[in-house]
Amino acid sequence: MNAAIEDWRQRAEQAALLGNMEQEIAARQELATRSMAAGDGAGARAALDRTLVLARQLGDIDEEGRTLYALALLQQRIAPQGGAARRLLEEAEQAARKGGDLPFLARVLDKRAGLMIAEGKPLQAAKLLNDVAALHGTCGDEDARLDVLRRLAMTLQMAGKPSEAFDILLDALAESKASPAQLVRARLELHLLARGTGIEGESLQQLLDEAVADGDVGAAGYIRLQMAADALQGGDPVGGEAHADAARRDALDCLDAILYLNACLMIAEAREARGDRVGMLTILFTCKASLQDLLGEQGARPVLALIHSLEQRWGPEDFGAALEQYRAQFR
Q1: How far is CA 216 from CA 172, 182, 221, 222, 322, in A?
Q2: Is the pLDDT of residue 1 over 70?
Q3: E strands along the chain, which residues?
Q4: pLDDT by residue (tens digit) across 73-90?
Q5: Judging by beta carbons within 10 Å of its beta carbon (0-12, 13-18, 19+), is residue 242 exposed, middle or buried?
Q6: What is the pTM assigned to this prediction?
Q7: What is the DSSP letter of 201?
Q8: Is the torsion defined by CA of 185, 187, 190, 195 positive or negative?
Q9: pLDDT above 70 covers what percent of the chain?
Q10: Is pLDDT larger for residue 57 or for residue 39?
């Protein structure tokens, strides 16, 4: 058994024997965090369940809400397809409204919106995101407000309402006092929405220049990723790979796993378009190893599944030959 976990378990039990509920709550929370990190979901759930009981006994509505939220995140991780996480978030929302903690309420509603999108309910998610943006505005967090409005526009586009999405984001940009980094990211989204509505948007190169000037490596990476996609769609795999590789380097600089994965997949697509199967395997195995370092084995599984799918696409003989050439590079 993990010594640190056992130590916190003993601290919690000692606090319980002394009747010190506040101290027990703190120990149970630490126990839950360490248990989850060790892959013990059941242990984390037991610690949080006890924390919830204590919070309710104390009448601490804020602690109750935070614990319900933590339980929802845990439930989503353990059983993402069930409705338990949604119900826990609804309870967390009720507690947050009673407690009056607006930033926390915004976080809960944002998570609820994410679940609705995953459940295929973008219009319901859009209503929640609108409320989240309003909460951030009330709290004076302009960066968070614009970020949510950007995601609201993406959600409306997903729901088949590109014109409404464009108008919302255009209005948001016109009045926003967010940081330059958030403004560039929102303008990139507006550029993409403009394409869907037949409106000519800003040039990606202009947006990239501004992101680089602002030192926003993440935004630069996503802009370069779109430039890579455009190049590939235009039949330019060499240019597409160059943009995607630059996006991959940006992802490594800002430790953005999603950007890194997408950039690697774009490089793989460009190399396959050029007939470079060994190069394609090289970037995919590199991506797998990097994601495994960042996120653990689970984070690398989608790439591993893609590598395995190539055997069916190329045929066992061609796949085996390409794999042998890939391995020969390291002998």
Answers
A1: 20, 9, 9, 10, 38
A2: no
A3: none
A4: 999 888 776 789 999 999
A5: middle
A6: 0.80
A7: -
A8: negative
A9: 99
A10: 57
